[in-house]
């Protein structure tokens, strides 16, 4: 599908051990390759013996240092193999999303339950990388399909189909919008059970997934988080063959608060503590049922959050001297500007005129918006190969917003949707279960890798996707 991305991702995801081994080998080679200069054979011989001794002791010392330092942090993961199930009859993956859980929020307050998963599980050391645009629907659907938005079709939270002029919104459940094969469909295609307690796309009937009653909850934001956790726990009271192999659980927080007050408000701290309590409630429930060590819990977010303020704005009306951009052309303002000019206008000309204005120095904050033809966006964004993506896309600098016209409003809050290279857009990946080493840190990776990870844990064949086939082996414990 997207081979360039695959090779980039492969090189990004070495294991800790792979990273360390070549260094120690280099150290051994360079010390034994030290040049020897001498005028006589005996001196040469003695110096050879001496240098060999020095080299050997250096090698031993280096090897000792290497193994002792790695054993303190990594001894379990080096020797450990996947742990057998003790109570469950089949593997179960519970995928939890805490919306807008920016990487680093776990340090905002005391989070003993999330810490327990981290300490006894595997964590993306610098966070999970979302896909572009770093918005809720595109990212949740990339997590469960392993596809970039251009391929799974949900290219934004809101967009217009250029063929039919129909509008997709977050309430659109018609299968035609939702391409690719989400995990719940893959799982039921294999004769296993799946359950969804909310997830974008989960209500959509696809293949053998028909959103079955009691196993597929229709989205309703007013359901208390406790009730969601209790429902998931009750699945573990079913007879063994009825326990779903794959479950989702979704919380709107802390995204909800992040938009209102930005990432650094005490309201976020409170929301994070509350999510931690929900994780605690879940862990207690699983322990009471004797299945906590058997269940694979994967906790992620969909994107991060950055503070915004109304002094950091770019107004399209300020470009009028170069080109007029009517509101009807604009499908989405910010942080991803998406423009579809009507036929008769050349997108290339529109882009050129907009950029001329933005770079003129005469447009407030113009330097913080760059406009592209979608084909000319950086390829790492994978945001071109779909007719649904409008021809003109603007990338906004972190924390800035695009609006049509000036207003006197002075608000501060938070936003996401920016370039996924910004660390503020990163979220968390924490996995705890029989196939995850305890206390292991892995390098950051993109969320399209999660699909293959889940199918590997469940031991089923997944659909084609943008994830790397070898990724699961780099992060899971070997089975023997
Ligand atoms: Zn979100």
Automatic annotation (TrEMBL):
SUPFAM superfamilies: Alkaline phosphatase-like. It comes from Olea europaea subsp. europaea. This is Ectonucleotide pyrophosphatase phosphodiesterase family member 3-like. Residues 1-35 are annotated as: Disordered. The keyword GTP-binding does not apply. GO terms for cellular component: vacuole. The lineage of its organism: Eukaryota, Viridiplantae, Streptophyta, Embryophyta, Tracheophyta. Residues 1-13 have a biased composition (Polar residues). The keyword Transmembrane applies. Keywords: Membrane, Transmembrane, Transmembrane helix. Residues 24-35 have a biased composition (Low complexity).
């Amino acid at each position: 599908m997207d081979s360039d991305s695959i090779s980039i991702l492969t090189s990004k995801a070495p294991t800790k051990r792979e990273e360390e081994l070549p260094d120690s080998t280099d150290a051994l080679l360079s010390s034994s390759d030290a040049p020897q200069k001498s005028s006589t054979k005996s001196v040469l011989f003695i110096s050879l013996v001496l240098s060999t001794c020095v080299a050997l002791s250096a090698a031993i010392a280096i090897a000792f240092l290497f193994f002792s330092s790695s054993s303190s942090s990594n001894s379990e993961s080096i020797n450990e193999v996947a742990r057998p199930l003790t109570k469950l009859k089949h593997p179960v993956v519970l995928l939890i999303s805490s919306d807008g859980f920016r990487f680093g929020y776990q340090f905002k307050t005391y989070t003993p339950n999330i810490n327990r998963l981290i300490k006894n599980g595997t964590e993306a050391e610098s966070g999970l990388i979302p896909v572009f645009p770093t918005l809720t629907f595109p990212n949740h659907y990339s997590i469960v399909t392993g596809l970039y938005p251009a391929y799974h079709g949900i290219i934004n939270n809101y967009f217009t189909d250029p063929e039919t002029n129909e509008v997709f919104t977050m309430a659109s459940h018609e299968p035609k919008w939702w391409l690719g094969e989400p995990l719940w469909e893959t799982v039921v295609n294999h004769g296993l059970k799946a359950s969804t307690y909310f997830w974008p796309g989960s209500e959509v009937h696809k293949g053998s997934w028909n959103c079955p009653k009691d196993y597929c909850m229709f989205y309703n934001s007013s359901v208390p988080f406790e009730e969601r956790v209790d429902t998931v726990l009750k699945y573990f009271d079913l007879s063994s063959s009825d326990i779903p192999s794959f479950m989702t659980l979704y919380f709107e927080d802390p995204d909800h608060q992040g938009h209102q007050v930005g990432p650094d408000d005490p309201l976020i701290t409170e929301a994070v503590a509350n999510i931690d309590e929900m994780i605690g409630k879940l862990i207690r429930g699983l322990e009471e049922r004797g299945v906590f060590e058997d269940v694979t819990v994967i906790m992620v977010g969909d994107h991060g959050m950055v503070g915004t303020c109304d002094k950091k704005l770019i107004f399209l009306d300020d470009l009028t001297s170069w080109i007029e951009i009517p509101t009807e052309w604009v499908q989405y303002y910010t942080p991803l500007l998406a423009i579809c000019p009507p036929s008769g206008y050349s997108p290339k000309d529109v882009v050129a005129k907009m950029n001329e204005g933005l770079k003129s120095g005469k447009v407030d904050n113009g330097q913080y918006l760059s406009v592209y033809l979608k084909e000319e966006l950086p390829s790492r964004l994978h945001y071109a190969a779909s007719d649904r993506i409008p021809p003109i896309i603007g990338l906004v600098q972190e924390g800035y917003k695009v609006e049509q016209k000036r207003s006197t409003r002075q608000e501060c809050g938070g936003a996401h949707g920016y370039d996924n290279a910004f660390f503020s857009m990163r979220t968390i990946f924490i996995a705890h279960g029989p196939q995850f080493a305890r206390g292991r840190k892995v390098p950051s990776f993109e969320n399209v890798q999660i699909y293959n990870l889940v199918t590997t844990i469940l031991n089923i064949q997944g659909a084609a996707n943008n994830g790397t086939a070898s990724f699961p082996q780099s992060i899971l414990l070997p089975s023997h």
